[in-house]
Design a protein that fits this description.
The complex is a heterodimer of chains A (about 120) and B (about 350). Chain A has about 120 residues and is an all-alpha fold. In chain A, about 75% of the residues lie in helices and about 0% in strands. In chain A, helix 1 packs antiparallel against helix 2 (about 30-50). Chain A is elongated and about 60 Å long. The two termini of chain A are about 30 Å apart. In chain B, helix 6 packs parallel to helix 11, helix 9 crosses helix 14 and helix 12 (about 290-315) packs antiparallel against helix 14. Chain B has a five-stranded antiparallel beta sheet with strand order 1-2-3-5-4. Chain B contains 14 helices and nine strands. The chains are: A mainly alpha (about 120), B alpha+beta (about 350). The interface of A and B includes residues 43, 77, 96, 99 and 108 of A.
Chain lengths: ~120, ~350
């Protein structure tokens, strides 16, 4: 149970104040730092909103791919891609590619959705 | 910037003035302004205004002192090596700030440095690629950059003054791939897409090309424009022998298009004017297969560099927001790797 406004709401408000009220008051050579701070706040806001759900979805798909559950599946997946372990099976290779797409898009939705949009993705 | 005050202290300025006087054979040198310049994540650049009495630089001069940042990444040249590369480029007619003096005497500045002329202009890539007033001149700029790159690539081994550069056989794709994997083995987070991209590189290596001097960071953001005029190609710290397509792929890769992802030549133009000027100046044809390979290589390499930059903040003791955020750009590179190698593969439910 949290008080209102929510953490996300005050973070969004703080970002708006930083960008539109404080940044113009800063000397020119520090404005870039203020923009970076605003960027960090936006990432934190998006990550707080989605929580661990995107990671959980990817982990579930990895568990289906490997037919087992383990905390180390992402490392195992990376290793298997390194050695071409999926290349002998069209089905498994397709599943691996789909997983990479989903993982990458989920990460960019949090860290840089405008880059996704500029590439025609959401 | 750590240590700025001590570097601007009177004894430090006096030592620098003495060095400049000796190097230029001036009677005296008075430093009239000295302050850190922006840009350069791996190196420190200082704007240096000085009044020379006599000698090779007699009169008022606007210079840059370039030295190492507090922490760096292993792949970059030393400042003295970078100075030698800059001398070679200047002699080959590449548009670079004239390199003047170098020193490894730590009594002067506390670390090795070199001095070059300061040129006017800005390199800010987001602003440049988003500047609609420059649209009419961008194709000509792309041509000019193609010609400049061709001139860089006319520098070929063996070159006694560049003997410190590793032979191409020691720095080609096979070695790069081994280096990428060694880095990822040390990195705490798994990077499946990078591993997949590296695997593709490993299984698609092309026969060795005749090596040339590659800038290895030739891109928008590393050249300066004064209005619409190119004034300098900057940041030679990654230069080395390589396949010329490495620089072409790096210049065109999506990571360096900034505000204009649709303009494949550095965010400023179509590829055609850049390619045509390069081919005309160099007398060599660009091989699209090699460019594609090098663009995948570029995306992997930029991703690894981005992670290494972030490491400087997370593990290297360098408290820096820009470095901290740069690591997140690795995922942008991973998206590009997927788009290059799996163009029809975006799952409907992604």
């Amino acid at each position: 149970m949290h008080d209102l406004p929510t953490g996300s709401a005050v973070l969004a408000l703080a970002r708006d104040v930083l960008l539109n009220e404080l940044t113009p008051l800063l000397p020119e050579d520090r404005r870039q730092d203020a923009l970076l701070v605003a960027k960090c706040m936006a990432i934190a806001e998006r990550e707080a909103e989605t929580g661990g759900e995107p990671a959980q979805v990817v982990l579930c798909e990895l568990a289906m791919l490997y037919e087992e559950e383990s905390c180390c599946l992402l490392h195992r997946f990376a290793h298997d891609l390194r050695i071409g372990a999926f290349e002998g099976s069209e089905l498994r290779e397709g599943a691996a590619r789909a997983l990479m797409w989903r993982l990458t898009i989920a990460k960019l939705r949090q860290s840089n959705p405008s880059f996704l949009a500029a590439n025609g993705l959401r | 910037m750590a240590g700025t005050a001590s570097l601007q202290s009177e004894p430090r300025r006096a030592a620098l003035a003495r060095f400049l006087a000796t190097a230029s054979a001036a009677r005296t040198v008075e430093i009239t302004a000295l302050s850190p310049l922006g840009g350069g994540a791996l190196q420190e650049n200082w704007g240096l205004d000085a009044r020379f009495a006599g000698g090779a630089l007699n009169g008022d001069q606007r210079l840059v002192l370039r030295t190492d940042a507090a922490t760096g990444i292993a792949a970059s040249l030393t400042r003295l090596q970078e100075f030698a590369v800059l001398q070679a480029a200047f002699a080959a007619g590449v548009t670079v700030p004239e390199p003047l003096f170098a020193s490894e005497d730590h009594a002067v500045w506390g670390k090795s440095f070199f001095i070059m002329r300061r040129v006017n202009g800005t390199a800010a890539p987001d602003r440049l690629t988003g500047d609609l007033t420059l649209d009419p001149v961008f194709p000509a700029l792309a041509e000019r950059l193609g010609s400049e790159l061709a001139r860089i690539h006319m520098i070929r081994p063996p070159r006694p003054n560049l003997a410190f550069l590793a032979p191409y056989g020691e720095v080609g794709p096979t070695r790069l791939i081994a280096g990428f994997r060694a880095y990822l083995d040390r990195h705490p987070a798994a990077r499946p897409v990078l591993e997949w991209g590296i695997r593709w590189l490993e299984t698609h290596i092309l026969p060795s090309a005749e090596p040339v001097l590659c800038h290895h960071d030739f891109r928008t953001g590393n050249y300066m424009l004064d209005g619409a005029t190119l004034t300098a190609i900057l940041d030679w710290e990654f230069a080395g022998w390589g396949d010329p397509h490495e620089d072409i792929g790096w210049f065109c890769c999506k990571g360096w298009r900034f505000a204009r992802l649709d303009r494949e030549a550095g965010g400023i133009a179509e590829r055609a004017p850049f390619y045509q000027a390069y081919e005309s100046e160099s007398g060599r044809s660009i091989d699209p297969r090699r460019v594609r390979f090098c663009e995948v290589l570029a995306s992997v390499r930029w991703a690894i560099i981005a992670l290494q930059q972030s490491d400087r903040h997370m593990f290297g003791g360098e408290r820096n927001l820009d470095l901290a955020l740069t690591g997140r750009r690795a995922t942008e590179c991973e998206l590009e790797i997927l788009m290059l190698l799996d163009p029809a593969g975006i799952p409907a439910d992604a």
